[in-house]
């Protein structure tokens, strides 16, 4: 966008990007009026919110460049640049207020990027108009900047919640894997014990059968257990008894 304010090439580039976003915001809100589905309206508002965040970032960058060049510019040029910056902040704040009006019409007052904190409800569209008309330009600028700062804080809190959720999910997966491995070892040990009990039962049966019928050749020998030896009785003649 052309401007009568003298600017360095760097400021001109930033200034042009800001106004490109302003045009995108204006077109986006016009498109929003034609959308009837609430889900699509919410999605469109999210995209417009991203444009507003980008405008805020660029305006801050514009302000830094003004301060860097302040010593090299005449006072009247510095005043014009600061007036242009305030004009852009005011325009951005108007889109912020417009977004709040649409959010109120959607009935989404609690969970949104530009919330006003827990326990505080947002003003209605009529209250927004009354508030804006009663505020000076500087107050409108300060209000817009404060609102956008609160937005950044909400986004950072959301990022932390996501990171904590991912960390808990990872820890849960590790715990479940450890428990699965432990259950596998327990099942293997139970199989070993069951096999040992089965072999012991067979051994006891074999021992019992050999004790009851030691001469039965069909009974297999058990290692470490020999069949009982048959007793032999010695007979002596009457003469041998008295010798």
Name the overall outline: rod-shaped
Give the averaged pLDDT, no decimals.
75
What percent of residues adopt helix (DSSP H or I)? over 70%
Number of helical regions: 6
SSE class: mainly alpha
Ends distance:
147 Å
Total strands: the figure is 0
| Main sheet record | none
Describe the structure.
The chain has helices spanning 9-34, 38-69, 75-106, 125-134, 137-212, 238-242. It contains six helices and no strands. With 243 residues, it is mainly alpha-helical. Helix 1 (9-34) packs parallel to helix 3 (75-106) and helix 3 (75-106) packs across helix 5. Helix content is 74%, strand content 0%. Mean pLDDT is 75; it is low at 109-127 and 233-243.
What is the element layout, followed by pairings?
Elements: H1 9-34, H2 38-69, H3 75-106, H4 125-134, H5 137-212, H6 238-242
Keywords:
single chain, mainly alpha
Brief summary of the model shown:
The chain has 243 residues and is mainly alpha-helical. The protein has helices at residues 9-34, 38-69, 75-106, 125-134, 137-212, 238-242.
